[in-house]
Amino acid sequence: MFTQDDFSYIPIRSKSYNFFYKVNFDEDNPEKTVKQCFSVLYDYGVFLYAVYLVLVNKDGYAQDGCYWYHPDMNSPDPRDHFEGVYFQDGFDDPDWIAIVTEQENLKYTEKACERFLEIHPDNKYRELIAYMLDFAKKEINDRVLSE
Question: Where exactly are the structural domains of the chain?
Answer without folding.
Answer: 22-146
